[in-house]
């Protein structure tokens, strides 16, 4: 039964990657045609896209985007955890190789796991973002560990930079929350 679930899950992931690739290809093919109609409409579209990126607290660099970035408030002197989503709209996998912040002495990539009822947390050296997929940093899984962090006020913003295997770092503004992105 477990192998059947694993195979089904793998098939669903593969179909999602193919669908994301096809959607990206269609968008790329349609963009030049849409641009011929009205340059002003293209500028309006770009402005709306920039507003969406700003609303989602991240930036888009090449084919990677950072969205829904937030940091769980922690007591003074205690490391803080950061969460976000990195989306890859490209056709090749990308790798996050590190992170930095303006409000922490050091930022590490971490993974939480449950080992027979015992919670564990360990640093990871790199995190792959599959082509047409995403890497989700969420409580109980992948996260950023901000060490030597300055005191963080609720609602304040923290600059986060994700270092990637190719291209410039991804920039994000993470909002300090109590428990979740929606708090």
Put the structure in a nutshell:
With 183 residues, the protein is an alpha+beta fold.
Classified by CATH, the class of the largest domain is Mainly Beta
How many individual helices?
Answer: 2
CATH T-level fold name of the largest domain:
Immunoglobulin-like
Strand proportion, as a percent range, falls in: 35-45%
Please, what is the average pLDDT? 76
Number of domains: 2
CATH superfamily of the largest domain: PCu(A)C copper chaperone
Helical percentage: 25-40%
Give the helices and strands as they follow along the chain: HHEEEEEEEEEEE
- Number of β-strand runs: 11
* Overall outline: globular
Oligomer: single chain
Helix- and strand-based class?
alpha+beta
Main beta sheet strand tally, sense and closure: 11 strands, mixed
- Indicate the radius of gyration in whole angstroms: 18 Å
Q: CATH architecture of the largest domain, please?
A: Sandwich
Protein described:
This protein has 183 residues and is of the alpha+beta class. The protein folds into 2 domains: 2-53; 57-177, PCu(A)C copper chaperone (Immunoglobulin-like, Sandwich). 29% of the residues lie in helices and 42% in strands. It contains 2 helices and 11 strands, in the order H-H-E-E-E-E-E-E-E-E-E-E-E. It has helices at residues 2-37, 39-55, and strands at residues 60-61, 64-72, 80-88, 94-101, 104-115, 118-123, 127-129, 134-137, 142-149, 157-164, 170-177. Strands 1, 2, 3, 4, 5, 6, 7, 8, 9, 10 and 11 form an 11-stranded mixed sheet that branches. It is globular and about 40 Å long.
